[in-house]
Amino acid sequence: MFISGIKLQNNSKKLGKTIAVYLLMTVLAIAVNLIYGLFGHGVHSAAMTGMFLYPLLGGALGYLLIDRYMVFITRFVVYRIGYNSFNSGLAALTVGSFLKGILEIAGTNSPYLIIFFFLGWVAVGIGLVVFGFLVVSNQRFLKAGKRMKKTEETFIHE
C-alpha cells in the first residue's frame, strides 16, 4: 500500500532556522516599536508595544515546543499546510498590530484593521488544527516514547 503523506527527510534543522527567524523578528519588532516611539512625540500605542508577542510566543515558542516534543509531525506532507497557514496567520497578526499602532499614534482608525486580525486568527487556527490532527492521528509515536533522532532516519508504515 502506498502512503503519499509520508516524508522521508528530517526537518529538525528547518525548525531550528524557523525558531531563529522568529527570534530575529521579535528583536526587529521591539526595535521598530522603540524607534517609532522616538518619533511619536510621546504618544504610545499598546498594539505596537505588544506587537513583538506574536513572533515570540506564537512563532519561537510554538516551534520550540514542536521541535522538543512533536518533531515527528514534520515528516508528513500535510505538515506544510499547517506550517504555511500558521506562519501566514502570525504575519497577518503582527502586521495588523503594527498598522493599528501607527493609526492609534496618528489619532485615527480604520475599519479594515479587523480583517488583519480576523484572517490572522483564522490562519493560526487552521495551522493549529493541522498540527493537532497530525499529533492525534500519530499517537503511536508518542505512546512508544520514540523521539526522533536529529539524524536522517526513515519509518516504515504498514
Topology, element by element:
Layout: H1 12-38, H2 46-49, H3 53-69, H4 78-106, H5 113-137, H6 139-143
Helix pairs in contact: 1-3, 3-4, 4-5
Gross geometry: elongated
What is the arithmetic mean of pLDDT? 84
Class inferred from helices and paired strands: mainly alpha
Oligomeric assembly: single chain
- Put simply, the count of helices is 6
Rg is 19 Å
- The level of helicity is 55-70%
Run of helices and strands:
HHHHHH
Reported for the largest beta sheet, the result is:
none
Percent strand equals under 5%
Distance between the termini: 7 Å
Which labels suit this protein?
158 residues; mainly alpha; elongated
Written account of the structure:
The chain is mainly alpha-helical and 158 residues long. It is 68% helix and 0% strand. The model is unreliable at 147-153 (pLDDT under 50).
Quick recap:
The protein has 158 residues and is mainly α.
